[in-house]
Write a structure and sequence with these properties.
The complex is a heterodimer of chains A (about 270) and B (about 200). With about 270 residues, chain A is mainly α. In chain A, helix 4 crosses helix 13. Chain B is an all-alpha fold and about 200 residues long. Chain B has 2 domains: about 90 residues, RNA polymerase sigma factor, region 2, helix turn helix motif (Rna Polymerase Sigma Factor, Chain: A), CATH 1.10.1740; about 80 residues, Arc Repressor Mutant, subunit A (Orthogonal Bundle), CATH 1.10.10.10. The chains are: A mainly alpha (about 270), B mainly alpha (about 200). Chains A and B meet through helix 1, helix 2 and helix 3 of A and helix 2, helix 3, helix 6, helix 7 and helix 9 of B.
């Protein structure tokens, strides 16, 4: 039986008093202690940068890579309620359909319906808003630390220290496209931008599509036209209404998930 | 291995405060004091890239530094807690993916010049380390953290999230097992004992 004191002496590489049977073990442990001694390791590039500028709030090594970002997005969606999940899914679906529709690649009747909706909605706002205000939840908190690291993958600086190019959600919501052309181009742009494909953007698309649909319905009501073709085109109009209800739910929950997303994406280059 | 760093307890608080305030020299001091032991532990415990792992550990340390409260011993436990988790992650990931090892001609055992070389290698500097590595996992962790990382029983208990009494028991059993292994005749049949691990 080895006592605590004897164990401590052995671990120090010393032979406990009166225990010669442990001499070889003590020597072996001393040998290990001697041979595992190492010089100071070479810091990685990320750590070297951190050691030079410890005030950088988020380490490069701690930034999520793209697969992790996707995992976090999936995890955030998984954490939503059923209605919100449906809304998120419908948002993504709407995003995809709108993109395909704008490209004229839908099957015949569906493309007709798409064209009908897009062509009958009146444009009401200037088109420059889309260019100026991107809908991206990768906003920063405005600190220099995060802004310095917000280099997008193509090597361009997305965020600058004055933050002029970093647009927050408030700005995005204020200037969401309402007209048909802007809406479609906005959706197409979003569909082509991997950073904008996500639950939040999908929810925004869903919400915007709902508003457009309501505008059109009001317009038709005022004109007193039934527009059977359109109804046929949206044979699943009942489902769309359901989606829009869910979209409302999602819109209500969006700030919560958006907040998480912002936190996650804030450090991404 | 003294390994307790060149920073005394008296000055640790000021170094820590400076590091938490963002002083580069203080962060470098913390790195210099603890990185060699972390890298040694990672290497002895089987990390393929101990330097990289050590850098990752310290990136995590600096990320959480602002919230750390404690003395030098607590900081050492803090650092090795992160190191241990990172190491376990690496070993687990490697176990899942399978391992690819770069072929280095000089390390190919088929190129050993003679049986004497092999015998010398076995009886040489790595023998004791290999003996520790052959222990059951929980005993091995305790011994590596005690010997290589030079942690106290209490610090090991923090790192492994065990009670100090449990760590002492594991340490005692490990030492007794090691002594028996060392006393066993050194014949080619010796490695059969590896089934313990």
């Amino acid at each position: 039986m080895i006592t605590d004191a004897e164990a401590q002496r052995l671990l120090n590489g010393d032979v406990p008093d009166g225990r010669p049977e442990f001499a070889e073990l003590a020597a072996s442990i001393a040998d290990v202690r001697h041979h595992v001694m190492r010089a100071e390791p070479t810091p990685s590039a990320a750590l070297a940068a951190r050691l030079e500028r410890p005030t950088l709030g988020v380490s490069v090594g701690a930034e999520p890579t793209s697969p992790k970002g996707i995992k976090k997005m999936v995890a955030s969606i998984a954490g939503l309620g059923i209605a919100a999940k449906v809304a998120a899914a419908s948002g993504v679906l709407a995003l995809g359909l709108a993109g395909v529709g704008a490209a004229g690649a839908l099957p015949g009747p569906a493309q007709d319906a798409f064209d009908d909706v897009v062509s009958t909605i009146v444009m009401t706002e200037d088109e420059g808003a889309v260019e100026e205000c991107t809908v991206d939840d990768g906003t920063t908190d405005g600190t220099e630390d995060v802004a310095l690291e917000s280099t997008v993958e193509d090597g361009t600086e997305e965020g600058t220290e004055d933050g002029t190019e970093v647009v927050d959600d408030t700005c995005a919501e204020d200037e969401l496209p309402v007209g048909s052309k802007e809406f479609s181009s906005w959706v197409v742009q979003g569909a082509q931008d991997p950073d904008k494909v996500g639950a939040e953007f999908g929810a925004a698309v869903s919400e915007q599509a709902r508003e457009l649909r309501e505008e059109k319905a009001e317009e038709r009501a005022e004109n007193g036209t039934g527009n059977g073709g359109s109804s046929n085109g949206f044979g699943n109009g009942g489902r769309s209404d359901d989606d829009s209800d869910d979209s409302t739910d999602e819109t209500e929950q969006a700030p919560t998930s958006g907040g998480k997303s912002d936190g996650n994406r804030g450090g991404r280059p | 291995m003294s390994g307790r760093g060149s920073t005394s307890d008296e000055t640790f608080a000021s170094v820590l405060a400076a590091a938490q305030a963002g002083a580069s020299w203080a962060c470098t001091q913390l790195w210099s004091d603890h990185a060699p032991a972390v890298a040694a532990f990672a290497q002895a415990r089987g990390s393929r890239e101990p330097d990289d792992l050590t850098s990752e550990v310290f990136l995590a340390v600096f990320d959480r530094l602002a919230t750390f409260r404690g003395d030098a011993e607590a900081f050492r436990s803090f650092v090795f807690s992160i190191a241990y988790r990172r190491l376990v992650d690496e070993l687990r990931m490697r176990g899942r993916r399978g391992e690819t090892v770069e072929l280095v001609a000089e390390e190919d055992p088929r190129r050993a010049s003679s049986a004497e070389d092999e015998a010398t290698r076995r009886l040489g500097e790595h023998r004791a380390l290999a003996l520790i590595a052959s222990l059951p996992a929980d005993q091995r962790d305790v011994m590596m953290l005690r010997i290589v990382a030079d942690l106290t029983v209490e610090q090991v208990a923090v790192v492994l999230d065990k009670r100090p009494g449990a760590v002492k028991a594991l340490q005692r059993r490990a030492l007794e097992r090691l002594r028996k292994k060392l006393d066993a005749p050194r014949t080619p049949a010796g490695p059969a004992d590896d089934s313990d691990s």
